[in-house]
Amino acid sequence: MDSGENEYRIARFRERLARDDTAELGVRVETRGGAVLLTGTVPTAGEREEILRLAETELAGLLVRADLTVACIDPPERPEELL
Amino acid sequence: MTAPERQEDGAVVRVAAVGDIHLSPDCRGLLRPSFETLPLCADVLLLAGDLTRHGTVPEAEVVADEVRDLGVPVVAVLGNHDYHSDREADIARVLTDAGVSVLEGDRTVLPVDGGRLGIAGTKGFCGGFAGRSAGEFGEREMKDFVRTTRRAAEGLHEALSDLADCEARIALTHFSPVPDTLAGEPVEIYPFLGSYLLAEAIDGAGADLAVHGHAHLGTEHGMTAGGVRVRNVAQPVIGKAFALYHLPLTRTPEPSGAGNAPGRAGRPPAADAPM
Known about the structure:
CATH topology of chain A: Histidine-containing Protein, Chain: A
Helix content of chain A: 25-40%
Low-confidence stretches of chain B: 1-8, 257-275
Strand order of the largest sheet of chain A: 1-2-3
Mean pLDDT of chain A: 87
Radius of gyration of chain A: 16 Å
Largest sheet of chain A: 3 strands, mixed
Low-confidence stretches of chain A: none
Strand content of chain B: 15-25%
Largest sheet of chain B: 6 strands, mixed
Distance between the termini of chain A: 56 Å
Radius of gyration of chain B: 18 Å
Shape of chain B: globular
CATH class of chain B: Alpha Beta
Number of strands of chain A: 4
Oligomer: heterodimer
Structural class of chain A: alpha+beta
């Protein structure tokens, strides 16, 4: 595994996520062992799929593990009392 | 002086807050069902910036539809995403037309049961935290960068100072005033997530609560050096449609030297100083 080249590919993938079409800055992209790990919370399931699709294209040939959750949009159960 | 009043009075303002909702036309109506419960539980909804994904007008119209005629006042600051397409003025106008108070170095006062809630807001900017921050030195670009933050902090200080007679005061920003609420983000990017200049303004003018967004991987709770509670309400952090805070309505004591010494610590220690 050419880790030098992969490091730049992962950096380009991060930049791609932050760019115009996705504009996603809340996903963390890290290497874990031989795999690329994606973590974070995204607003919709559609966006999660879009990010996974991008990862498949940009990181082709690398093992990608994703632990991306979709944000909960329910009202809170109780307030915090700031006494 | 304040502790006994707080115990006896008991009036609170109910503050709902969320940031970083990043709406776009494909999530139209997503938050509306939860927002429609607000009149039952809150006196105000604060939006802590990054309301859109790319800062376009069609995205702002989605945000406007989510919060129009909610039955509670809505007060917002914009975030960096809302500036991405250079349409921030149009975005502010779309939101204002929907009844939202959009603050930038400005403030608003809301009458609430038992008093007045003052909210001062600015997007803020980055630069880092005390001891690990960018300096106003060297290249033009570097000085412009730091001055952008400084101007935002000065606007916040002035707006908070104008609210001195309110029973509760909130500083609303997008960028973080403290590093506490960034825990979970890579330490290397803290300088891009906020600035101590915002906390200095908050402590200098005095506030009861500071609310921000921007740091999706951070944590909810923090505090300024002067003892003002800070809450990161970025939606991925709070994990719900909005966070809800009950804030006592008691007049904030003036910080010593308020208005002319923004470097001084904020509220003097009180008997019930929060931990």
